[in-house]
Design brief:
Elements (H helix, E strand, L loop, with lengths): L4 H4 L6 H14 L5 H12 L15 H15 L4 H5 L1 E4 L2 E4 L11 H14 L6 E5 L5 H9 L4 E6 L2 H13 L1 H6 L3 E6 L19 E6 L13 H6 L2 H4 L7 H13 E10 L13 H7 L4 H7 L8 E8 L5 E8 L2
Parallel strand pairs: 3-4, 3-6, 4-5, 6-7
Antiparallel strand pairs: 1-2, 7-9, 8-9
Helix pairs in contact: 2-3, 2-4, 3-4, 6-7
Length: about 325
């Protein structure tokens, strides 16, 4: 394919002009943050960072071709993170791409809640489990920010596990420097604590279980093309009401957590307290131990499994995640 530079970006030769053109075109197709995306694309294509862009004038022909190729993909709503290959999460950079869910800023609050609890433990009890780990964002953050921790990162998708492994490896030095370790496990988050599964030896020992599970109802197709067309379906959809995986995670967490241990679980802004039994707090309050769970969790059959159930809001004031403690 040949590229006519003058036609693709109007013959503009300065960073300011290229940014103006890119932002205008991204705005026209409804990209939510056109100024940020334009700057990230131009900076990445030119091998620099956003805060150093204006030191790069003029934009040469090779860079203009790279910018145009990336911009064309973003205009078709390929996620920005897939184009640049990374996303920031708390104190780390993660590699992301097709096949793994892109961590969002709101999930940083979920990680923060898990971290606070883990750091309250003595170092010999800093044992955490990240269910549906995806890129490994929460698990790696826990290991680095809670020194002396052992974190089990559980994921079912082979595609996602490729990214988990890549990210754990790239942060191996920082994890080791904190005296922590991350163990990656391929298993179903709803069964991983059952006999014969990967974490059956961990029953009743975990201080924290954390998860950003799939919670979108099957008939609620996301409007954003970046999510609808590019995020893995396994990481999005949680059954007819969106809570199938959540229910399984509540069961797994009740088995793995020590008495009084903390569960932190993300949900949509429509699945908070006001949703009643259609929300995560409501389902958690109603959950009781069946015979199978009672035998593994060492509680009487029929007993409620969760106490201190609190829903928390995100930075926009919307319900976003729930905290609950395994009953003692």
């Amino acid at each position: 394919m040949s590229w006519d530079i003058d036609r693709t970006i109007g013959g503009r030769a300065t960073v300011r002009d290229v940014l103006f053109d890119a932002e205008h075109r991204l705005t026209a197709v409804g990209v939510p943050s056109p100024n940020v995306d334009a700057a990230e694309i131009v900076a990445f294509a030119m091998g620099t960072t956003r805060n150093r862009l204006f030191l790069q004038d003029p934009v040469d022909a090779e860079h203009r071709v790279r910018i145009e190729k990336m911009l064309t993909k973003r205009l078709s709503r390929v996620p920005l993170q897939h184009l640049i290959g990374t996303v920031g999460f708390r104190r780390i950079e993660l590699a992301v791409g097709p096949g793994v869910f892109i961590p969002r800023p709101e999930t940083e609050l979920v990680a923060e809640a898990a971290l606070r609890e883990l750091n309250l433990q003595t170092e010999d009890e800093r044992l955490g489990v990240d269910l549906c780990t995806g890129s490994g964002a929460i698990a790696i953050s826990m290991a680095i920010e809670a020194p002396g921790s052992t974190v089990y990162a559980v994921e079912l998708s082979d595609e996602a596990l490729t990214w988990t492994g890549m990210n754990v490896t790239s942060h191996a030095e920082r994890i080791a420097g904190a005296g922590s370790r991350v163990e990656i496990l391929k298993d179903d988050a709803t069964q991983v604590g059952d006999p014969g599964h990967e974490l059956s030896s961990l029953v009743g020992r975990a201080a924290v279980v954390v998860s950003n599970p799939p919670y979108v109802p099957l008939d609620m197709i996301p409007r954003e093309p970046e999510v609808r067309d590019h995020e893995p379906k396994l990481a999005l959809y949680g059954g007819d009401d969106g809570l199938d995986v959540v229910r399984g995670i509540l069961r797994t967490a009740a088995i793995l957590l020590k008495p009084g241990g903390l569960l932190v679980i993300e949900h949509s802004d429509m699945q908070g307290n006001e949703a009643g039994l259609r929300g995560v707090p409501g389902v958690t309050r109603a959950m009781v131990a069946d015979y199978e769970v009672a035998s593994m969790a060492n509680v009487p059959s029929g007993q409620r499994l969760w106490t201190s159930i609190n829903d928390r809001i995100d930075l926009t004031g919307r319900p976003r995640f729930m905290l609950a403690r395994r009953i003692a």
